[in-house]
Amino acid sequence: MITVKRIDTIDGIKDLIFEQTYNAEIDRTRSSYCYRGMRNVDYDLTTSLMRNCKGSYAELEQPMLDNFINYARIEDPSINECVWKAMVIGQHYGLPTRLLDWTHSTLVALHFANSEDNQDKLSKRDCVVWRIDLRDLNRNLPLKYREYLERKNTFVFSLDGLTEVAKDIRQYDADMGDRAMVCFEPPSVDQRIVNQYSFFTAVPSGIKDLESFLDTYTENTVKYVIDRRLRWELRDILDQLNINERMIQPGTAGIAKWLARHYYVKSE
Questions:
Q1: N or C end of the chain: which has fewer CB within 10 A?
Q2: CA-derived radius of gyration, the chain
Q3: How many Å apart are CA 220 and CA 206, to the nearest integer?
């Protein structure tokens, strides 16, 4: 089920940041939660492939990937060795894919929830942070997927691990149906993925509505709605904690975006 929690105080933000779970078996804090921050509470939890290709996404995904692999091979001759690697690289450069970005860091999720291209919008709309529990997702997986995770003693697949159990997207879709999906850690193709503590869920074509899936097949999914009146205060706090584009998107573009907000003058 999906639980909706509204946050309208900074204390509520603190509770979100520090909600990580304790694992008594190893006497360490090892959370199974992943987060996704979105700047507008009205945005649907959906993939770029679904948004781009609408109702034809299942038919258009493979030819689009094939063409991407064909042209991207100029820069990376090995890109055709693994469909999941091609998908990750495509996602990284803006190709519409079935992958949905998540992070293990509440602070990173809050950064994305409180980042706007137009700074005036920070005070105009509520934002949202989604939380999923990987234990929920993994309970629904087919046996061979669960056996892999148990063998590796992990919550998430590596790229090699996902390739081991599902060599192509057709097999993956058949295995998942409409009631399961995998979370995997992408390879560190650049520093941005490392700094964002990134993970991907690979949404199978059988799941037409991700929010309905989470409401039906998970127990610990939470939708944190953050009041618009908190966003400027929270944005400034995050910037002073060095949770900003300078760190999240390292490079000249990230520095420029961070400085633009730092020197932004609010409208009266």
A1: C
A2: 19
A3: 22
Residues in the chain predicted with pLDDT less than 70, given as ranges, are: 188-190, 268
Q: What are the φ and ψ backbone dihedral angles of 63, each rounded to 5 degrees?
A: -60, -35
Q: Is 137 left (phi over 0), alpha (psi -120 to 50) or beta?
A: alpha
The helix/strand/coil state of 46 is coil
* C-alpha to C-alpha distance for 4 and 6, rounded to whole angstroms: 7
Q: In what order do the strands lie in the sheet with 221-226?
A: 2-7, 221-226, 127-133, 33-38, 99-103, 198-202, 182-184
Model pTM greater than 0.90?
A: yes
Q: How many Cα atoms occupy the beta-carbon half-sphere of 162 within 13 Å?
A: 27
Task: State how far the Cα of 202 lies from the Cα of 98, in Å rounded to an integer.
Answer: 6
